[in-house]
TrEMBL record:
The protein, known as: P-type Zn(2+) transporter
EC category name: translocase
Annotated P-type ATPase A domain residues: 117-215
Organism: Paraburkholderia phymatum (strain DSM 17167 / CIP 108236 / LMG 21445 / STM815) (Burkholderia phymatum)
InterPro entries the UniProt entry points to: ATPase_P-typ_cyto_dom_N, ATPase_P-typ_P_site, ATPase_P-typ_TM_dom_sf, ATPase_P-typ_transduc_dom_A_sf, ATPase_P-type_domA, Cation_Transport_ATPase_IB, HAD-like_sf, HAD_sf
Assigned EC number: 7.2.2.12
Xref: Gene3D superfamilies: Calcium-transporting ATPase, cytoplasmic domain N (3.40.1110.10), Calcium-transporting ATPase, cytoplasmic transduction domain A (2.70.150.10), HAD superfamily/HAD-like (3.40.50.1000), nmb1532 protein domain like (1.20.120.520)
Homology family: Belongs to the cation transport ATPase (P-type) (TC 3.A.3) family. Type IB subfamily.
Reactions mediated catalytically: Zn(2+)(in) + ATP + H2O = Zn(2+)(out) + ADP + phosphate + H(+)
Keywords linked to the UniProt accession: ATP-binding, Cell membrane, Membrane, Metal-binding, Nucleotide-binding, Plasmid, Translocase, Transmembrane, Transmembrane helix
Record's keyword annotation contains Lipid metabolism: no
Cellular component GO terms, alphabetical: plasma membrane
C-alpha cells in the first residue's frame, strides 16, 4: 500500500471518528437532527471509498465482501439508523487502517532493501575521483568506497575491506575481505575506505537483481488471497440469503440489517494477505527472499524435494582432505612445496591448496622461474628445489613415479576425488587429495526438512554414478540420479510434478531450467549464478542450506495461521449472523462485535512475524567458532600421522616399531588428549547451555572417553613392546587400535564442526 493510500485511510478513520463523537455530543444535547446530520456526514466518505473499492475489484474480475458493507450502510441510512451507519463506517475505516498498518509493518524488512539502493559511485577518471551516476559505471572501472557507503556494483577488491553484509545475508557479523576477493553490491563499508574494480554494471549487479525480485514479490498476490476471494463470493451469497430470509420470515428489516452488519468486513479479506506478507517479511529478515505469496504457499504444501549436488549439497569448491607422502617426506613438506608454487597460479585448485597451507600456518616461499601449462600443471623453483604440481600425467613426465602412486590413483577413483601430484627434484614427493566436501550444514538440513514433512529427497547431478551414489549414501537421500544433463533434470522435474508440488534447489546456470519448471525453485543466491536466481521463486541470500529449513517452517506456520484466522473469523461471523437473524443482536451491537472480530483476526495473522527461526537457546560467537575450527586445523597433522603410522607399521624394521609407537603415544598425550580434555571441560558446558535440554552433549562426551581409552591402551601396549619389536599378532592389534582411533577422531571432529557451524552467531 502506497503512502497516499495510507493517508486516505487515516483521513477516513479520523473523519468517521470525529463525526461519530460529535454526533453523540449533539444527541446528548437533545439536538437529534444535528446529530443525525453529523453521523451522515461521517458516513458518506466511507461509502464513497467502498464504491471505489468495489469498482476496482470488478475491473479485476474479483468479488469481495465490500458489497456487504455497502448494503449494510445503505440499509442503515435508508432506515434512518444514522448511528448504526456511523458505527459501521468507523468499523470499516478502522479495519482498513489497521490492515494498512499491518501490511506496512509486515513489508518493512523487504521495503527497507529498496530504500537502501545506492545512487552514485566514486570513479577514478582523469587522475582524480569523481562522483558519477550509478548507471554510468561500467565493468573495469576503478571505484572508491568510503566508510559508511554501500558498495555500488559487483566487483573485486583492490585493498582490504571490512564489510557489513547483513543487508544481503541477514547476518550481522562484520566480514574481513582481502584483495582479490569478490564483493557484492549493496553491502556496507564499515572500515576505512577501499578501492575496487567493477565487474558488472549496476543493472547486472547482485543488489539490483535482488531489488527486482523484491519489487516483483511485493506486486504478486498470493493464491490464498484469490482463494479467499472465491470463498468471499459464497460468503456474500450466504449472508444475503440469510438476511433476506430473516426479513421475510420475521417481517423485520432491522434483522436483515443486523445480519449484513456482522457479515462485513469478513476476515477473509484481512487475514490471508496480512499473514502471507508477514511470513514473507519473516523470511526476508533471515536471508530467504520469497518472490511472492504464491511461492510461500506452494512451499508449505510441497512434499518432494530435488537437489542439485555441486554447490548445493556440497560446497562447490575443492578442499584438501588428505596428504599422501612418500617415504622419508613429511606431509607438511609436500603441502608447503605445493602451496608455495601454487601462489603463482590463478587456478581454483591452486588457490585451494594455498588456502589449506595458510590454514595450517605453514610458512610459504616465493616461487621463481614459474611455467604454467593450462589444464596440466605448474613447474617452478621453490627454495632452490625444482617443483612440479598438477595432474599425474603432467608430474610423472617430470618426476619418477613412486610405488604408492598406483594404489593412490585407484583410491581416487573409488572415492570420486581429484588430486594434485607433487614432484620435487625429479622424484614424486607426494600428492594432495582434493574433494568437493559436503556442506557442514547439509546433513542437519536434510534431517530437519524430513521433520517438516518432506517425503522424498532426490539428488540430481551430472557427476559419475559412483561419485553421486557415495554422496547420496552419506546423506541418506531417497534417490540418486547421476550423469544428468540440464535437459534430463528438466524432464525429471516435469515428471515429478504429476505426483504433487515439487521443490528444486540449485545454484548454477545449468539448474535454471529445472528451477523455472518446479513448483518452487530455490536458488543458492549468495554466490550462485544470476540466471538461477532470476529463474527461482525463492533465493537464499545466505550461503547456508539450512536457511531453506527456515523457509519451509515459516511457510507452513504462515499458511496454518492464515487458515486458522480465516476459519475462526468466519465461524464467529456466521455465529453472529445466526444470532442476528433470530433477532437477538441489534445492528449497533453487531457492528461493535464485528469490529472486535476483525481486530482479533488481524492480530492473529500478525503472529506470522514472530515465527521462531530456531529452537536453540542461543548462538556461538563467530570468533569462538573460528577459534574452535582453527584448533581442529592444527590437530589435522596429528590425525594424519595416526593413519600414516597404521599404514606403514608392518613395513617398519622391528627395532624401529617401538620408537615409532612411543613417538605416537607422546604425540597423543601432548596434543590430542589435552585438546579433547579441554573441549570436554571448557567448551562442552557452554555448548550445552546453547543447545538446551538436560544433557545434550552426552554422546559427544562419550566419544571423548573412547579416545582417552584407546590412547591409554596404546601407551600401555607400547611400554610392553620388546626391544626387538612386537610379533605379527601384536602388529595387527596396534593397527586395529590406530585405525579405530583415526576413524573415531575424524568422525568426532566432523560432528563438532557441524555443531559449531549450526550454533554459529547469525546461523
Amino acid at each position: 500500500m502506497t503512502r497516499p493510500l495510507r493517508s486516505v485511510e487515516l483521513v477516513l478513520l479520523a473523519g468517521s471518528a470525529v463525526s461519530l463523537v460529535t454526533g453523540i455530543v449533539f444527541a446528548g444535547l437533545d439536538d437529534v437532527a444535528l446529530a443525525h446530520a453529523m453521523w451522515a456526514v461521517g458516513t458518506f466518505p466511507v461509502l464513497l471509498a467502498l464504491l471505489v473499492s468495489i469498482v476496482k475489484a470488478l475491473q479485476r474480475h474479483e468479488a469481495g465482501v465490500d458489497v456487504l458493507a455497502l448494503l449494510a450502510i445503505g440499509f442503515a441510512l435508508g432506515l434512518s439508523e444514522f448511528l448504526t451507519a456511523a458505527v459501521i463506517s468507523l468499523m470499516l475505516a478502522s479495519g482498513r487502517a489497521l490492515e494498512a498498518y499491518a501490511q506496512e509493518r509486515a513489508r518493512r524488512e523487504m521495503t527497507a532493501l529498496l530504500s537502501r539502493a545506492p545512487r552514485h559511485a566514486n570513479r577514478f577518471e582523469g587522475g582524480e575521483w569523481r562522483r558519477v551516476e550509478l548507471d554510468a559505471v561500467r565493468p573495469g572501472d576503478r571505484l572508491l568506497v568510503r566508510s559508511g557507503d554501500l558498495v555500488p556494483v559487483d566487483g573485486s577488491l583492490i585493498g582490504h575491506a571490512q564489510l557489513d553484509e547483513s543487508t544481503l545475508t541477514g547476518e550481522s557479523a562484520i566480514r574481513q575481505r582481502s584483495p582479490g576477493e569478490p564483493v557484492n553490491s549493496g553491502v556496507v563499508s564499515v572500515g576505512v575506505a577501499f578501492e575496487m574494480v567493477a565487474a558488472a554494471s549496476a543493472a547486472d549487479s547482485t543488489f539490483a537483481g535482488i531489488v527486482r525480485m523484491v519489487q516483483s514479490a511485493q506486486r504478486e498476490r498470493s493464491p490464498a488471497s484469490r482463494l479467499a476471494d472465491r470463498y468471499a463470493l459464497w460468503f456474500v451469497l450466504a449472508a444475503l440469503a440469510l438476511a433476506a430470509g430473516s426479513w421475510l420470515i420475521s417481517g423485520e428489516i432491522a434483522r436483515a440489517l443486523a445480519v449484513l452488519v456482522v457479515a462485513t468486513p469478513c476476515p477473509l479479506i484481512l487475514a490471508v494477505p496480512v499473514a502471507i506478507v508477514s511470513g514473507m517479511s519473516r523470511c526476508a529478515k533471515r536471508g530467504v527472499l520469497v518472490k511472492g505469496g504464491g511461492a510461500l504457499e506452494r512451499l508449505a504444501q510441497a512434499s518432494v524435494l530435488f537437489f542439485d549436488k555441486t554447490g548445493t549439497l556440497t560446497g562447490g569448491h575443492a578442499r584438501l582432505v588428505a596428504i599422501e607422502a612418500g617415504i622419508g617426506t613429511a606431509p607438511e613438506t609436500v603441502l608447503r612445496f605445493a602451496a608455495s608454487l601454487g601462489q603463482a597460479s590463478a587456478h581454483v585448485i591452486s588457490e585451494a591448496v594455498t588456502a589449506a597451507a595458510r590454514e595450517r600456518n605453514l610458512p610459504l616461499s616465493l616461487p621463481t622461474r614459474v611455467d604454467e601449462r593450462p589444464g596440466a600443471g605448474v613447474q617452478g623453483e621453490v627454495d632452490g628445489h625444482i617443483v612440479a604440481i598438477g595432474s599425474y600425467v603432467f608430474v610423472s613426465s617430470l618426476a619418477t613415479p613412486a610405488s604408492w602412486c598406483e594404489a593412490f590413483l585407484h583410491r581416487l577413483t573409488y572415492e570420486g576425488a581429484s588430486a594434485v601430484f607433487v614432484g620435487v627434484d625429479g622424484s614424486m614427493a607426494g600428492a594432495l587429495q582434493m574433494a568437493d566436501q559436503i556442506r557442514l550444514e547439509t546433513p542437519r538440513a536434510l534431517r530437519l526438512l524430513k521433520q517438516e514433512g518432506i517425503k522424498r529427497v532426490v539428488m540430481l547431478t551430472g557427476d559419475r554414478r559412483d561419485v553421486a551414489e557415495t554422496v547420496g549414501a552419506m546423506l541418506g537421500v531417497t534417490e540418486v540420479r547421476p550423469e544428468l544433463s540440464p535437459a534430463d533434470k528438466l524432464a525429471a522435474i516435469q515428471a515429478a510434478r504429476r505426483e504433487g508440488p515439487v521443490v528444486m534447489v540449485g545454484d548454477g546456470i545449468n539448474d535454471a531450467p529445472a528451477l523455472a519448471a518446479a513448483d518452487v525453485g530455490v536458488a543458492m543466491g549468495a554466490r550462485g549464478a544470476a540466471a538461477s536466481s532470476e529463474a527461482a521463486d525463492v533465493v537464499l541470500l545466505v550461503d547456508r542450506l539450512d536457511r531453506l529449513v527456515e523457509g519451509f517452517r515459516v511457510a507452513k506456520h504462515t499458511r496454518r495461521i492464515a487458515v486458522q484466522s480465516v476459519m475462526t473469523g468466519m465461524a464467529l461471523s456466521v455465529a453472529a449472523m445466526v444470532v442476528a437473524a433470530f433477532g437477538f443482536l441489534p445492528p449497533l451491537s453487531g457492528a461493535l462485535l464485528q469490529e472486535i472480530i476483525d481486530v482479533a483476526v488481524i492480530a492473529n495473522a500478525l503472529r506470522a512475524l514472530r515465527i521462531r527461526s530456531t529452537a536453540m537457546a542461543g548462538s556461538l560467537a563467530r570468533s569462538d567458532e573460528d577459534r574452535l575450527k582453527a584448533e581442529h586445523v592444527e590437530l589435522g597433522p596429528v590425525v594424519g600421522q595416526i593413519r600414516e603410522l597404521a599404514d606403514k607399521l608392518p613395513r617398519l624394521p622391528g627395532p624401529s616399531v617401538a620408537g615409532a609407537l612411543a613417538n605416537m603415544s607422546d604425540l597423543l598425550a601432548h596434543k590430542l588428549v589435552p585438546h579433547e580434555q579441554r573441549d570436554d571441560q571448557e567448551v562442552y558446558p557452554d555448548l550445552a547451555r546453547l543447545l538446551g535440554g538436560e544433557d545434550p552433549m552426552a554422546a559427544m562426551s562419550a566419544m571423548h572417553r573412547e579416545i582417552f581409552r584407546i590412547s591409554r591402551l596404546l601407551r600401555q601396549m607400547t611400554e610392553a613392546v620388546p626391544a626387538g619389536g612386537p610379533d605379527a599378532d601384536s602388529i595387527r592389534e596396534f593397527q586395529r587400535l590406530l585405525y579405530g582411533l583415526d576413524a573415531i577422531v575424524r568422525l568426532h571432529c566432523a560432528q563438532e564442526e557441524e555443531l559449531f557451524h549450526t550454533l554459529a552467531e547469525g546461523a
